[in-house]
Design goal:
- This protein is an alpha+beta fold and 285 residues long.
- It has 3 domains: 101 residues, PAS domain (Beta-Lactamase, 2-Layer Sandwich); 90 residues; 74 residues, Arc Repressor Mutant, subunit A (Orthogonal Bundle), CATH 1.10.10.
- Helix content is 29%, strand content 26%.
- The chain is built from 9 helices and 11 strands.
- A 6-stranded antiparallel β-sheet has the order 2-1-6-5-4-3, sandwiched between helices. The chain has a 5-stranded antiparallel β-sheet with strand order 8-7-11-10-9.
- It starts with 9 loop residues before the first helix and ends with a helix.
């Protein structure tokens, strides 16, 4: 019996995908839906195993062609703001038509001036819908089509369960802010959640280099020093306390004795209304 051309030979497709297992690639059907994806592509996009299957290719990669008469190459953008060059090649073999193989040819880098992972998105929070993506937009990039079935922790963060430190799930007034380290890479990721109606929350993800964080701390310290009337020496000690330096190290850096450092610390804590060095974190906020 002859197989209808509208029914791909999934065995042949699966075999071809296995042969390309180390290459980021996906099989896209005639409707532009991802049917199979290699583990390499899932890792590249930060997706959980099989999380890409059943999703429109335009929702996975902004700008990706959904179909092509012949081979098409195009630059696309991931939800994390990474730029890729991809190719869409119709039919791995005649038995596999209709459909096409999407291959990642080259990782071009992140959107200009931005770190990978910086994006805005909105999720549903109603019963049974928590984490469902309403829309997603890489910072400074094009909007990706909404994917009703996709959950943020799977599609954007490559996790099978909601993030344990998700600010949406925590208590407190809106907006809610949570910062986490990017270990093993240096720097920090700041996630801000703001309510948009009763059952929708908008989140922004921004990344800060270590130097940028130090700069923010120094700027905040200067503002505190001016407001509290700290002396120049007290402000210098405050800056180094906030950077985590020990009292002996501060003394060596400023050329003063440990006793003098303790004297300035006591004065600046009193003027700032902080009970201890550890309490400076509260004052800083």
């Amino acid at each position: 019996m002859t197989r209808a051309r509208s029914e791909p030979d999934w065995g042949a497709v699966a075999l071809a995908m296995l042969e390309r297992g180390r290459e980021p690639a996906a099989w896209v059907d005639a409707a532009g839906t991802v049917r199979l994806a290699t583990a390499s592509l899932e890792r590249l996009l930060g997706a959980a195993p099989r999380a890409l299957e059943g999703r429109p290719v335009a929702a996975v990669l902004a700008g990706a062609p959904a179909s092509a008469e012949g081979r098409v190459e195009r630059e696309v953008t991931t939800a994390a703001g990474r730029r890729l060059r991809v190719a869409l090649e119709p039919g791995i073999e005649p038995a596999c038509e209709p459909g096409a193989l999407l291959r990642v040819l080259e990782v071009l880098g992140d959107l200009p001036g931005l770190g990978a992972g910086e994006l805005d998105y909105a999720i549903e929070t109603g019963p049974g819908a928590f984490g469902r993506l309403a829309w997603v937009r890489p910072l400074g990039g094009p909007a990706l089509e909404p994917v009703p079935a996709a959950r943020c922790h799977e599609a954007l963060h490559g996790r099978s369960e909601p993030c344990a430190d998700c600010p949406v799930r925590g208590g407190g007034a809106w907006p809610r802010v949570h910062a986490r380290t990017l270990a093993p890479a240096p720097g920090y990721e700041v996630v801000t959640a703001a309510a948009e109606g009763a059952e929708r929350v908008r989140l922004t993800v921004r990344r800060l280099a270590e130097a940028a964080v130090h700069g923010l701390v120094e700027a905040r310290a200067r503002a505190l020093a001016r407001g509290a009337g700290l002396s120049e020496r007290e402000e210098a000690v405050l800056n180094r306390l906030l950077q985590g330096e020990g009292l002996a190290d501060i003394g060596r850096a400023l050329g003063i004795t440990l006793r003098t450092v303790k004297f300035h610390q006591a004065n600046l804590l009193r003027k700032l209304g902080a009970e201890s060095r550890a309490d400076l974190a509260r004052v800083l906020m």
